[in-house]
Amino acid sequence: MSDFPQFDLPGQVALVTGAARGLGRAIALALANAGANVAIGLRDLHADAGLAAEIERLGRRVLPLQMDVARMDQIAASVNCVVRHFGRIDILVNNAGIAPENLAENVREEDFDNTLAVNLKGTFFTSQAVGRVMIEQQSGRIINMSSQAGFAALPTESVYCMTKAGIAHLTKCLAIEWGRYNITVNAVAPTFIRTPGTEQALADPEFRTDVITRVAALHRIGEPMDVAGAVVFLASPAASLITGHTLLIDGGWTAR
């Protein structure tokens, strides 16, 4: 072959939802480091905790957005704003998600509805809004956030597990529909990663030991950049023939 795989994203425009902290923050920074300009979707516009400044220090353009993906009006306004500001959207990372824990017999309708509104409805309609832009461009990369919870049952997280399994299958459906437009749609499915959202659970020595034991191959807690690296790969030209796939980033948890 005369051409080697390309992993950089020079001049690309990425939109990352749920970018304020944890995985979203790491993904936004990793995409910027790879050369992309980044629109950061924030449920609270004033809570970016310096992320925009960090992206600018990497020499990239950044656009903070008020974007609660449970609100259709904010999805539409944010996508329109990105297109007006940058002229296009090359990469979408559907990272926003919530995970209220409760035993199945105690789940409240409010928590059920909120989890589906953010995790499933938000992912679908953000993909739809950006997909329309990408269809017009005849190109694009969409990366959804599934979870090992979509492949392995986790006690007290039945609703969350259900939504993450749904995202994995939605990924296949959108990949088949939009492949004709040169749009790839993939997902990543992380294990427990060291983020503010998992800090309390991992502080429990018994729980932490159990997680490390179940990460059968590597026996360590994952870091946000472990996930961000996979997202950058799926967004890059090197992954141009990969679509409809969910990449497990679980240290071997589900290999058992």
Explain briefly what this protein structure is.
By secondary structure, the protein is α/β, with parallel strands linked by helices.
How does this structure look, described?
The chain has helices at residues 22-33, 51-57, 72-86, 109-137, 158-178, 199-202, 205-214, 224-235; strands spanning 13-16, 37-42, 62-66, 91-94, 140-145, 183-190, 246-249. By secondary structure, it is an alpha/beta fold. The chain has one domain (13-193, 222-255): NAD(P)-binding Rossmann-like Domain (Rossmann fold, 3-Layer(aba) Sandwich). It has a 7-stranded parallel sheet, sandwiched between helices. Helix 5 (158-178) links the parallel strand 5 and strand 6. Helix 4 (109-137) packs parallel to helix 5. The model has no long low-confidence stretch (mean pLDDT 93).
Write down the oligomeric state.
Answer: single chain
CATH architecture: 3-Layer(aba) Sandwich
Instruction: Tell me how many strands there are.
Output: 7
What is the fold-level CATH name, i.e. the topology? Rossmann fold
What would you call the shape?
globular
Termini gap: 37 Å
Helix/strand/pairing category: alpha/beta
What is the radius of gyration computed over CA atoms, rounded to a whole number of angstroms? 18 Å
> Largest sheet, order of strands side by side?
3-2-1-4-5-6-7
Indicate the low-confidence ranges by residue numbers.
none
- Work out the count of structural domains: 1
Largest sheet: 7 strands, parallel
Number of helices: 8
Q: CATH class, anyone?
A: Alpha Beta
Q: Estimate the helix proportion, in percent.
A: 40-55%
